[in-house]
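Hi there,

I know you've been waiting on this one. I reran it after we fixed the sequence typo, so this is the corrected version. Both the input and the resulting structure follow.
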Amino acid sequence: MAKLFLLKPDFSDKNMDENAKFYCPSCAQILGVITYYPVLKEKLDIIYIDFKRPRKEIVDLVGEENQGCPNLIFEKDELSDLDDLDYLESYGEFYFQNKAPLIAEFLAEKYGIGVPH
């Protein structure tokens, strides 16, 4: 089962105003897609993680340089049914994508949901 990593909302950033609360707009975009298509909750292991780096759960799978969120990660053998994997990145035994528009495109191709218009 694919793992979808999203940042927890209301995080702080020590490099900015420490009293401010933030959310990740790209994570919110993907969460919106999941809200539109609740069947995705059955297809994805959705994991909420802290903003602080390193994000060990992601680093362990796709490396420190690829820990941005949102991050959708699949074992390579899970995607043998797809012909076009050009918009996914590869790291070891995994394919991943951490750009929200490309994650949405992938979810549409893999699970037959609508595409943005």
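Quick highlight: The chain is about 30% helix and 20% strand.

Best,
R. S.
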